[in-house]
Amino acid sequence: MEIGFYFQPLEYSNEDFSKSQLGSTTQFHTEDFQPELIEAKPSIVLIGVQEERGAVNNQGCSTGPDVIRKWLYQLHRLPYFDMPIIDLGNILEGDSIDDSYHAVSAVSSYLLKRDHIPVLIGGSQDLTYANYLAYEDLEQVINLLTVDRKFDLGESLQSDLSSDTFLSKILLHQPNFLFNYTNIAYQSYFVAEDTMDLIDKLYFDHQRLGAIREDIKKVEPLMRNVDVVSFDISAVKNSDAPGCGNSTPNGLTGDEACRIIRYAGISDKVSSIGFYEYNAFEDPNQQTAQLIAQLIWYFVEGVNSRKKDIPSEGDKNYVRYRVHVSHEEEDLIFFKSLKSDRWWMKVPFPGKKSNTYKRHQLVPCSYDDYTEACQDQVPELWFKTYQKFL
């Protein structure tokens, strides 16, 4: 295993678990065994990260990976769990925080190029920046989604990199290969007015906690449109997930979080995910560790339930709808999957940008977007996507 030197091996054995438990079939990187990632078929690959120097008000979040594993591998498989699970162990702190970022980026890049799905557990959320950098080698413009109670832009775009500022570093990184950013479950009282103004000026997507609670199904098309998911455990309310120095009384419930992460799993586009900010010192009963283990289980279940139904022109598995909207030169085109009943809409390219943005032209949407177009209204999602093409 070419990346094995980044990891501290684990001390797990498949024999420690009953036949139906996840731990019975997971390939563990141990002193005696290194998984062969080059020849392996596409797998879900767990990566523990023991790095917290970028944490804000949550020192101790490097302690999480092994506690989460304790509960994860006791959970039971379902009969259709066919995609292999590999656990590479923990990336330890580097001599500098930049060394840790480099290790995370290099490992994720290695896995992504071989069609594996990295699942990062532990550490602070600034590691999202390191995971984002892994996509630079793929020369692919991508979408990022965070599940977070706020937008991590810091007081200014020039702030030092931390768990509170990593988004600004992603926005300023050159070359920039971020097409769209989405935040779900933010709480308005944690978001400054100028921050929201910036998010809207960039035509980014967002769903407030209250809107999700009214109709959580709105999350599914948003999740279906992203490549990278970053989950801050402080997005879950303290009574359900106390294991974080930044947890608050309000937030997602545990079951809402599980449903959201299942949406990430069933998305054919999501290629990596991270669960950050878990602090074992704040979690004496290990309730939060159990919840994160269950979140990972729902992601695994979702990945094993993927439909592989992204539309293509002429595919007989889709119904194509053409809707005329006044004030628009071209009709709006919608696709409905006959496999899953999910919807997409096609957004035309302005000028000669088709090569750069081709994979973003078909935008996951909902039936509501189609009905809005039928009422002679251009859906907001169509408009925002078109503006990002300009």
Report a brief summary of the structure.
Helices cover 28% and strands 18% of the residues. By secondary structure, the protein is α/β, with parallel strands linked by helices.
Shape: globular
Structural class label: alpha/beta
- Using the CA coordinates, give the radius of gyration: 21 Å
Q: Report the biggest beta sheet as strand number plus sense, adding barrel if it closes.
A: 10 strands, mixed
Stated plainly, the CATH topology of the largest domain is called Arginase, Chain A
Unreliable parts: none
The N- to C-terminal Cα distance equals 43 Å
What is the averaged pLDDT score?
Answer: 94
Helix content: 25-40%
- The CATH superfamily of the largest domain is identified as Ureohydrolase domain
Give the number of DSSP strands. Answer: 14
**The top level CATH class name of the largest domain:** Alpha Beta
Multimeric organization = single chain
Q: What percentage of amino acids are in beta strands?
A: 15-25%
Q: At CATH's second level, what is the architecture of the largest domain?
A: 3-Layer(aba) Sandwich
What's the SSE pattern? EEEHEHEHEHEHEHHEHEHEEEHEHH
The total tally of domains equals 2
Number of helical segments with 4 or more residues: 12
Structure description:
The protein has helices at 64-72, 97-112, 127-133, 166-172, 193-201, 209-214, 219-223, 254-266, 287-303, 354-357, 367-374, 380-389; strands at residues 7-8, 27-28, 44-49, 85-91, 117-121, 142-147, 178-186, 205-208, 228-232, 272-276, 318-323, 332-337, 343-346, 362-365. The strands form two sheets. Strands 1, 2, 3, 4, 5, 6, 7, 8, 9 and 10 form a ten-stranded mixed beta sheet that branches. Strands 11-12-13-14 form a four-stranded antiparallel beta sheet. It has two domains: 4-303, Ureohydrolase domain (Arginase, Chain A), CATH 3.40.800.10; 318-389, no CATH class. It is of the alpha/beta class and 390 residues long. It is globular. Helix content is 28%, strand content 18%. Helix 2 (97-112) crosses helix 3 (127-133) and helix 8 packs parallel to helix 9 (287-303).
